[in-house]
Amino acid sequence: MPGPKTPVAALEWIQKAVYDGRYHVSIHFRDMLYSRKIEMEDACHAIEVATVCEPYDRDPVHGGTCWRIKAHDIGETKEVWVGCEAFYESKKRKCMLCTLFDPNADRR
Amino acid sequence: MLKCDCGGRLRKTVLSQYDFTAFAGISSTLRNVQGLQCDVCHGTTLDGMVINGTLRAMEIEIAKQPERLSHEHARFLRQRMRLTQQALAERMSVARETVADWERGASTISPQHDYILRSLAMAHLVETGTVQKEDLLDTMRETRTSFPRKVGLPILIGKVA
Questions:
Q1: Which residue, B143, B88, B53, A73, is CA-closest to B97?
Q2: Residue A94, domain extent
């Protein structure tokens, strides 16, 4: 079973998965929290309040679909862009927080 | 089976020690926690349920702690409530700069503001269903500020007299 196919479905999927704790964090994502000086609360907040979700070209490793979520931190001082894969695991809707983008470097 | 960035597989394991600082924003280490370890690069990570649960537990412990809030703890509680410094300042009737000063350690939070901030945090925990209303009341009854009681009253009496 693949993941969500539209940005609206993907955003809802990822928001609910993060709120319910049905998510995983890649080792790279944790490293990015350190290097980008972003806290987990800011990443979760960005996912909670995000209105922008777009596909991004990463090969899904869990058979799902990959999405880039764009929002801001709790203090509304910096942009937070989270890269995620939404997928099914044991018939449950899950997501993997894969990376944190650098909005300045990755802006297109 | 979950996969690691390196192509290996993430397997469930008990991690004797895990640095949680990146997630909490406060220097913290978890011991004997259920985690995931890659069978190739041996990198470790946590499940979202563990992360969310740990952050909730930390919020409760910090809100209930008997000591005055440190700058890190004040920031942590504000972030858990998803409030900007400005929004918290408005709720506490202080300037945004005052909150910023507490959080960067430029000034110590007063006992009264410490009490208010922890009350807001406990109310948030009740609102989110993390703790029961009775627990909130018990905590607030037991909470003591570190305000020195002997200061103030004799001076006031002296002036009146």
A1: B88
A2: 7-101
* CA distance between the termini of chain A: 31
Nearest to B52 among A21, A26, A34 (CB): A21
Number of domains comprising chain A: 1
Condensed to tens digits (0 to 9), the pLDDT of residues B27-43 reads: 999 999 999 999 999 99
Please report whether residue A107 resides in a domain: no
pLDDT tens per residue, range B51-110:
999 999 999 999 888 888 999 999 999 999 999 999 999 999 999 999 999 999 999 999
Q: Which residue of B has its CA nearest to A45?
A: B82
Q: Find where tokens 């007063």 sit.
A: B110
Domain boundaries, chain B: 2-157
Task: Kindly state whether residue A66 falls inside one of the protein's structural domains.
Answer: yes
Provide the 8-state DSSP code for A101: E
Q: Confirm whether A22 is domain-assigned.
A: yes
The CATH number assigned to the domain holding A91 equals 3.30.2310
Q: Is residue A106 part of a domain?
A: no
A72 touches chain B (CB under 8 A): no
ipTM of the complex: 0.90
How far B60 CA sits from the closest chain A CA (Å)? 16
Contact B51 A40 (CB under 8 A): yes
* Distance, CA of B157 to CA of A79 (rounded, Å): 55
Q: Does B55 touch chain A (CB under 8 A)?
A: yes
**Yes or no, beta carbons of B25 and A39 under 8 Å apart:** yes
- Classify domain B2-157 at the CATH topology level: 434 Repressor (Amino-terminal Domain) (1.10.260)
CA distance B29 to B17: 7
Give chain B's largest Cα–Cα span: 80
Tell whether A92 is within 8 A of chain B (Cβ). no
Which among A22, A74, A89 has CB closest to B82?
A: A74
